[in-house]
C-alpha cells in the first residue's frame, strides 16, 4: 500500500467520523503509527520529537507500563464494585505523592474533566455553597460543570456570555502582559479575588470554591506572580471557601523543582484534580483531598464511576508513579527543561520575535510578539514557526488566548540531545522567518 495515500485516506475517514468540532492542529497532520520515548514515528517511517505531549509523561510505548497493564488485562479488568489490591495500591501510591499529608484521600475517575467536575461537587457539598470563583483564560474540561469554569475564549468564543450565574471571574494573574505587572502584581491580582470574595459574602452568596491551575497552563505556562496563590487562598478561606488546584496539566513532576504546581508556590490546596500524566493516555484521573471533604459527599449519597479505578487503570496509575520515581523523571524535567529555557533565552538578542520564556521544568511557553513594548501577539508567525518546526522533525503547538505561545510540554523522558536540537531548529526557523 502507498503510505501517502493511506495517510490521506485516514485523514478523510477521521473527518467523516468525528465531524468539524473536533480540534485539529495541522492542515496536514502526520499519521502517527508508533512511539518511543519522546519520539513519534509516522507511517512513512519519519520520526518527530514530540514536544507537546503532556499526557504521555513517561514517554510513548514504555515497555514496563505496557507489560504491567497487559498482565492485569489477562487476569481481570472490570468495574470498581469489588475489592482489588490494584485499587488499594494505586490510591496509596498517589496519597504517598500527595502535595500535603492533610490530603489523604483519593477518588479515581476516568479523565481530567471528570476530576474537575468531582472537585466542584466536593466543594459544593462540603461547604453547602454553589458559587465558584474561576480565572479568565482557563480550560478545565468539557463536562457541564468543568465547562462552566472554563473561561478561555479561544476554546469557546461564547465562554463569557454563556456562563452560569454561579461562576464569577477574575483576571488571569499574568504579570507579563496582564493588567498588573512588576513586583506588586501578585498582591494586586490577589486583591481582585479578595474584593470579589468579600462582595459575594456581602451579597449572602459566599464562594464555595476558587479554582485555578497553579501554573497557568492554558494561558501558555505563565507562573502566577509570587505570593498570588497563597494570598488568594487566605482570602477565599476567610469567607469559608475551599481552594481547588487543577494539576491536570502541570502536576506530576513536570515542573521539575516540585511534583506539584501548588507546592511549588507554597500553597496547600483543599482539593486537587489530576489526570493526563496520571494515566499516560490510559483513561485515568483522580481527585486528592481531605477525608472530611469526601465524607461530606458520603452524607449526600454515594459516588460511583464504572471504570474509574478499574484494576487495569489502577495498575497503569501505579506503574506510572513507579516509573517517574525509578527513572528520575522529575529531575530530568528540571535539568532538560532548564537547558531549553536558558538556551531559548539566549536566542532573544538575535530573535526579537521571542518576547518571553514562561514556565519551568518541562512546562514552558515561548511567547512570540511583534514588538516587545506593545507585546502585540505574533499569532500568524507562531503558526508558521510550528509548521516549519514540523519540517525539522519537531512537534510544537501554539497555545493561549492569543495563540502566540509555543508550548513545550514533552514527555518527561526528553533527552538533552533532543532538547538542544530543538533549540537549534527554532533558531534556524526564526532566522528563516526573519530573512
Ligand atoms: N484541566 C486542565 C488544566 C486541562 O488542561 C484539561 C485538558 N486539557 C482538563 C482539565 C480536562 O482533562 P480531560 O481532557 O482529560 O478531560
Automatic annotation (TrEMBL):
Organism: Microbacterium laevaniformans
Name used for this protein in its record: 2,2-dialkylglycine decarboxylase
Similarity-based family: Belongs to the class-III pyridoxal-phosphate-dependent aminotransferase family.
Superkingdom of the source species: Bacteria
Gene name in the database record: dgdA
Keyword annotations: Lyase, Pyridoxal phosphate
The UniProt record lists the keyword Lyase: yes
Any one GO molecular function term: transaminase activity
Amino acid at each position: 500500500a502507498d503510505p501517502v495515500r493511506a495517510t490521506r485516506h485516514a485523514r478523510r475517514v477521521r473527518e467523516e467520523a468525528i465531524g468539524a468540532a473536533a480540534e485539529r492542529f495541522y492542515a496536514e497532520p502526520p499519521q502517527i503509527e508508533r512511539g518511543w520515548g519522546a519520539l513519534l514515528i509516522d507511517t512513512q517511517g519519519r520520526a518527530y520529537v514530540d514536544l507537546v505531549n503532556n499526557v504521555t509523561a513517561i514517554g510513548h510505548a514504555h515497555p514496563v507500563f505496557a507489560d504491567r497493564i497487559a498482565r492485569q488485562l489477562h487476569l481481570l479488568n472490570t468495574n470498581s464494585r469489588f475489592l482489588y489490591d490494584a485499587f488499594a495500591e494505586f490510591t496509596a501510591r498517589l496519597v504517598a505523592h500527595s502535595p500535603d499529608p492533610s490530603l489523604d484521600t483519593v477518588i479515581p475517575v476516568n479523565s481530567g474533566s471528570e476530576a474537575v467536575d468531582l472537585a466542584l461537587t466536593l466543594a459544593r457539598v462540603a461547604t453547602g455553597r454553589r458559587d465558584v470563583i474561576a480565572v479568565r483564560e482557563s480550560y478545565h474540561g468539557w463536562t457541564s460543570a468543568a465547562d462552566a469554569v472554563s473561561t478561555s475564549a479561544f476554546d469557546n468564543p461564547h465562554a463569557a456570555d454563556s456562563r452560569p450565574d454561579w461562576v464569577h471571574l477574575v483576571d488571569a494573574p499574568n504579570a507579563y502582559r496582564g493588567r498588573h505587572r512588576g513586583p506588586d502584581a501578585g498582591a494586586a491580582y490577589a486583591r481582585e479575588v479578595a474584593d470579589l470574595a468579600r462582595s459575594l459574602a456581602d451579597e449572602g452568596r459566599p464562594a464555595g470554591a476558587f479554582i485555578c491551575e497553579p501554573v497557568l497552563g492554558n494561558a501558555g505556562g505563565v507562573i502566577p506572580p509570587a505570593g498570588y496563590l497563597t494570598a488568594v487562598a487566605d482570602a477565599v478561606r476567610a469567607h469559608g471557601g475551599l481552594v481547588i488546584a487543577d494539576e491536570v496539566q502541570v502536576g506530576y513532576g513536570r515542573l521539575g523543582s516540585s511534583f506539584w504546581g501548588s507546592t511549588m508556590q507554597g500553597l496547600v490546596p483543599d482539593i486537587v484534580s489530576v489526570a493526563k500524566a496520571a494515566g499516560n493516555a490510559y483513561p485515568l484521573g483522580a481527585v486528592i483531598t481531605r477525608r472530611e471533604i469526601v465524607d461530606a459527599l458520603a452524607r449526600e449519597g454515594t459516588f460511583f464511576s464504572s471504570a474509574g479505578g478499574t484494576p487495569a487503570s489502577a495498575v497503569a496509575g501505579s506503574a506510572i508513579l513507579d516509573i517517574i520515581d525509578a527513572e528520575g523523571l522529575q529531575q530530568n524535567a528540571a535539568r532538560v527543561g532548564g537547558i531549553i529555557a536558558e538556551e531559548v533565552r539566549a536566542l532573544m538578542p538575535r530573535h526579537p520575535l521571542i518576547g518571553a520564556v514562561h514556565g519551568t521544568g518541562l512546562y514552558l511557553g515561548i511567547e512570540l510578539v511583534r514588538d516587545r513594548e506593545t507585546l502585540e501577539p505574533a499569532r500568524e508567525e507562531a503558526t508558521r514557526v510550528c509548521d516549519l518546526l514540523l519540517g525539522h522533525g519537531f512537534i510544537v503547538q501554539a497555545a493561549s488566548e492569543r495563540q502566540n505561545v509555543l508550548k513545550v510540554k514533552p514527555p518527561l523522558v526528553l533527552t538533552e540531545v533532543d532538547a538542544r536540537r530543538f533549540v537549534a531548529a527554532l533558531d534556524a526557523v526564526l532566522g528563516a522567518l526573519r530573512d
